[in-house]
Every structure is written in C-alpha cells, then in structure tokens.
Amino acid sequence: MEAKASLKFARISPRKVKIVLDLIRDKDTAVARAILRNTPKAASEYLIKLLDSAVANAENNFGMDRNRLVVKECFVTPGPTLKRFRARAKGSGARIMKRTSHVFITVADKE
Description:
Blueprint: E1 2-10, H1 14-24, H2 29-37, H3 43-62, E2 69-78, E3 82-87, E4 93-98, E5 101-109
Antiparallel strand pairs: 1-5, 2-5, 3-4
Helix pairs in contact: 2-3
C-alpha cells in the first residue's frame, strides 16, 4: 500500500528542488525529515510540509504505521513559467523567468 501527496505551483525552480529530493529518495520518513530539517536549502521548507502531508495521508486514509514508512518515489516537474521583463540599456528589456514546480512524494510500507 502506498500514499501520495503533491504540491503544485510552488514558486521555486525545479532544478533547486531536485537537488534536495535526491537526498531523501528511498529513506525512512523519519530519516528523510531529519535530513530536510538540517539541509540549508530553500526547497527544504516546502518538502518538510509535503512529506508530513504524505505521512498523514498514509496514517489517516490507509491506516499505515508511520514508523514503517519509506519514501518510495519523489520527483519534480516544471510548472508554468511567469515571464517578466526588466529594463536594460538603450531601451531594451531582459527577460526574467520566474519558474514554478509541481512536486510529488509517495510513501509506502517497508518490505
């Protein structure tokens, strides 16, 4: 049995999130949460909440034991990009890409 949680339209680049997700893949949820709390990256705040949500889904919806859960799958996909312009020299403009992310985490029982 597995439980999922997703975060959509997070205002952080997928590239930054992927670095942190690679740290917690295939780890116990308690260990993954400890890693996230001690990682000085902006994505850690988003991922702690998302991991807690996935664990709560497993407990409340499927009756799983939180001490036996493992991060089975976690990945990030790019969301829509907000395109903005900044004034530059000689009346031109430089494009600023404000990227968003869709993050997914799946937790499952240990086998």
